[in-house]
Amino acid sequence: MQVSVTLGTNRTGEPAEMNLEELLSTRLLVQGNSGSGKSHLLRRLLEQSARLVQQAIIDPEGDFVSFSDRYGHVVVDADRTPAELARIAARIREHRVSTVLNLEGLDADVQMSCAAAFLNGLFDVDHSLWFPMLVAVDEAQLFAPAIGGDVSEDVRKASLGAMTNLMCRGRKRGLAGIVATQRLAKLAKNVAAEASNFLMGRTFLDIDMARAADLLGMDRRQAEQFRDLAPGHFVALGPALYRRPVPILIGPVETRGRTGRPTLMPLPETPREALSDLIFSHIEDTPLPGPAPRAAPLATPSLIERIEAGQGADAVEPEDDDPRSPDERRVLVEAIFAEMLADPEAAFRPVPILYQEFLTHCRLKRLKGEETDMTRFRRRLSLARAGVGEEVEDEAWQEIARRSETLPEEMQGVFLMLARAASDGAECPSDDALARAYGSHSPSRGRFLLSFMAEHGLIRVESDFRGNRVVTILGTGWRCAHRSQAPVALDEARLRRQERLARSREA
After folding, report:
1. 174 φ, ψ to 5°?
2. Average of per-residue pLDDT across 344-366
3. What is the DSSP string of 108-131?
4. pTM here?
């Protein structure tokens, strides 16, 4: 099932949609000069997906802090130590809270250091916390500059390394990078080259127009069109958008930033003499205007408590009373699992990715509460992969389920699959089937799983006199039917014997 968000309309007036699931598997690059509507596009995309996926927004100007009131994003003021930011980022991934990292008012080198510490904290979490997350970086050329500027070389390398990790290696950790920049020439090529989706807005310099045309696969003569784009108009291309470059117009937004497009205002109608008095009188006693006062940032312990309390995007929607009975809800959950596991690639996706897909299905069916709990999902997934229902009445199966919990989480479904085959007297699953249930393409992984379970006293693996594999579930008497271990290897051995016999006859 595809989950799409609407960015606006295309040239024919049809909705211009972005496939959110495809975006999570790829990355997005947004380019546009100042005033082209780049931040407006980024705001539209984040608003449309706020209740569908966890988000982290790197905000150098404080324009996205309004998401806190509308969508429940936790605002993290970045004037903290790197260790605090890394710890906060880890908690954010653990509790799946959307956040805005507010870098407003900080010097350029401090902004880069804070962004690097925060991105590294998102990146360096445990494998069990690799939940899908959109990571949007506004003004990305500040954090991944193509050339060194006024900041120190160490700061530049740290920030560029964090941005490169996000775009190059973040996908496997569930991080989908969205970078927006004013000029492609200012953005490091290692960061820009990893994007698979592009939204190109107005630009004027020849070098930027040529580079945008190259990224979109357009002829150099077509690059002139980027100079004629109106504000809010972009050319879209990518697997999450269109297979060919398509001009689109970005739709309206629900929130507003602190800055916007400047508009003309009439000058004050004050006489010249009065203006002179206002400007020059008592100049020594008039205090200089200072920066606008800002609310004091939350202390790190208070912020972590707020994150752990779940005050994120999922906490915005109140829990409504569901009139459906538990049986009806269970049928809906079973149907969701059946639809998910019908996809052949589902066996090879990490559990956090499947969990995010499961939550999307639940939102569409308005399922909340204990049905969407992560712990219950992992157990349901293991049972579903093994072909076993969640409600097991038989005491023997309850004991098997308890014994499976002694294994690593990713192996529990494999053990239950073996137990199901053994209880039915069916043929032992092949190495390919065991590896697929584990999430691997390698048949050798299936053989490793059997040896691992045998070493831990859960199964016994034997071979009969024909070389067929026999698996017994210890403590139950359940036994799988025979399966030949390596017919190809046996055929090769037979061919070698025949060759040796032929050579001996010739001698």
Report:
1. 85, 5
2. 72
3. HHHHHHHHHHHHHHHHTS-GGG--
4. 0.63
